[in-house]
Amino acid sequence: MLKAFLSRSTIEAGCDEAGRGCLAGPVMAAAVILPSNYRHKLLTDSKQLTKKQRLELRPEIERDALAWSVAQASQQEIDEINILNASFLAMHRAIGALGKTPEHLLIDGNRFNEYRGIPHSCIVKGDSKFYSIAAASVLAKTYRDDLMESLAEKHPEYYWHTNVGYPTKAHRQAIQDHGITTHHRKSFQLLPAQLELFES
Fold first, then answer.
1. What is the CB-side half-sphere exposure of residue 120 using CA atoms within 13 A?
2. What φ, ψ does residue 120 adopt, rounded to 5°?
3. How far is CA 75 from CA 64, 79, 87, 184, in A?
4. Among 3, 73, 144, 163, which residue is least crowded by beta carbons within 10 Å?
């Protein structure tokens, strides 16, 4: 059973991101404030859920949350400031877009850049420990997957409709065969170093 809060008397926002390890597309982050008495029998780390379960959970989270938001940092920003800082930037944007101001942030992972002086706690594997972080993981994952599936309609050769930008064998082969798109992260090792890339 996940925990509903770290401190019942504090307005807490759970934060998580999706897409850090991808070769293409933005990194997406979500922030979610849930009621302190929140419970859900299915909600947990989005990676432990099926796509169908995540899509069923998303409207429930959006309905039950006191506030929620989703934001992103683009592939260009990832290339400029690196993926870690871009992940923090996406989280900052999500927190800033909340309809309520949180008093404490629960961050999935072990590092974070402070946002506007709001106290935060970094929680390793937090998406399997706190409902608010798990909810954020579901929103970030589903919204990012939706975006990559829509981009796949224009670039079907990269199989983003199934790999959503992650470095699968088919995705790397497509990069070798077709080059890269404006959606690819040029700062990532898209192919082994001995293979030359060109931009399509």
1. 27
2. -140, 155
3. 31, 6, 11, 7
4. 3
Strand ranges across the sheet with 27-33: 67-73, 27-33, 12-18, 104-108, 120-123
Q: Identify the three-state secondary structure at position 134.
A: helix
Two structure tokens written together for 9: 């008397």
The H-assigned helical ranges of 15-108 are: 51-64, 75-81, 83-96
Per-residue pLDDT tens over the stretch 40-92: 999 999 999 999 999 999 999 999 999 999 999 999 999 999 999 999 999 99
Count of residues in the chain: 200
Q: Where are the chain's structural domains?
A: 12-145
- Chain centroid to CA 54: how far? 13
Neighbours of 55 (CB within 10 A): 14
CATH number of 12-145: 3.30.420.10
Coil, strand, or helix at residue 133?
A: helix
Which helix (H) or strand (E) segment holds residue 28: the answer is strand 27-33
Q: How far is Cα 107 from Cα 145, in angstroms, rounded to an integer?
A: 21
Q: Could you give the CA distance from residue 49 to residue 77 in angstroms, rounded to a whole number? A: 29
Q: For residues 157 and 177, is the Cβ–Cβ distance under 8 A?
A: yes
Given a contact cutoff of 8 angstroms between Cβ atoms, the answer to whether 128 and 45 are in contact is yes
Residue written as token pair 């937090």: 126
